[in-house]
Amino acid sequence: MPTNLPHLYALRAFSVAAQYSSFSQAADFLNVTPGAVSRHIRTLEAWFGCQLFTRNGPKVTLTDAGNMLAGDLQQGFSQLETACQHLRSHHQQLRLKAPSTLTMRWLLDVMAKFHEQHAAPEINISSVWMDIDSVAFQQEPFDCAILLGNGQFGAGTCSLHLFDEWLVPICAPGLLAKAQDDLALCELIHPSRDRRDWRRWLAGTGLHAGLSLAGGKIFDTLEQGMMAAMGGHGVAIGDLLLCQAALDQHLLVMPFPQPIKTGDGYYLVWPQDSKRQNNIDKLARFLQQHAPRYAP
């Protein structure tokens, strides 16, 4: 310990006593005797040359000097705890951000398999709604993310391609004949407010020229659009690979089996020079091995 600082044990005892306004409660918290806490406080008062508490029987009250020290120490101990927790969890967990539909339709099952085979790292998934997939590692509490995009996620990031996005119309089996007969008579389901997915599919296939996208039902996610389609509420546009299980179970069908590759894909993204690179590499290998594939 540097000579220009009092002992850390004494500072910790003071900080806890200040929090509880009680030496006895501080002693219980620290698992020491009240006498030990009192001695630590006296040592600090001698070191600083001022009184830190006003004693009134078992009740203690911070002086102005004690109040100033307590505020600064609270911030300092909070930073110490954060630093220690960061190091402690360095080899034990990864905090992963992922889109909500991808999480429900693929990632949860893959992570269950990962944890069956690997004791570490623990993957903490945050399933997040994102209109446009993005991550800001300097501001957000994530070590890595799975994002839909073109592979360019900003300076200071690395990325690994997992699988491509293929868009295709989907509906409940009961709507199949109606959709194939005249799509214009069907209610369209849009998984985003800007209707971009239907627009991309129409442009990519050249089918249904003149189809109006002005009406229909609008949702925030592919998952919501899929659920609405399963319920027979219209024809949605979905990601073929994320819909595959529902298609295999005949919960959904493709009235027009012409999926189009949008040029976007799902990528694992992480910051350059990550301190958790070994864990990220382990996760990346596993995700690539279990990524869905479509062969046109």
Write the layout of secondary structure elements.
Elements: H1 8-20, H2 23-30, H3 34-48, E1 53-56, E2 59-62, H4 64-88, E3 93-99, H5 100-117, E4 122-128, E5 144-149, E6 157-170, H6 176-181, E7 188-190, H7 196-205, E8 217-218, H8 222-230, E9 235-239, H9 240-248, E10 260-271, H10 277-289
Parallel strand pairs: 3-4, 3-5, 7-8, 7-9
Antiparallel strand pairs: 1-2, 5-10, 6-9, 6-10
Structural account:
The structure is a single chain. By secondary structure, the chain is an alpha/beta fold. The chain has 10 helices and 10 strands. The protein has helices at 8-20, 23-30, 34-48, 64-88, 100-117, 176-181, 196-205, 222-230, 240-248, 277-289; strands at 53-56, 59-62, 93-99, 122-128, 144-149, 157-170, 188-190, 217-218, 235-239, 260-271. It has an 8-stranded mixed beta sheet with strand order 4-3-5-10-6-9-7-8. Strands 1-2 form a two-stranded antiparallel sheet. α1 packs across α2 (23-30) and α2 (23-30) crosses α3. The longest helix is centred in the N-terminal third of the chain and has 25 residues, at 64-88. The radius of gyration is 29 Å and the shape is elongated.
Task: Please supply descriptive tags for the structure shown above.
alpha/beta; eight-stranded mixed beta sheet; two-stranded antiparallel ribbon; 10 strands; 43% helix
Shape estimate: elongated
Taking pLDDT < 50 over at least 5 consecutive residues as the criterion, the unreliable ranges are none
**Termini Cα gap:** 66 Å
Main sheet makeup = 8 strands, mixed
Query: Regarding quaternary structure, how should these chains be classified?
Result: single chain
Succession of helices and strands: HHHEEHEHEEEHEHEHEHEH
Number of helices: 10
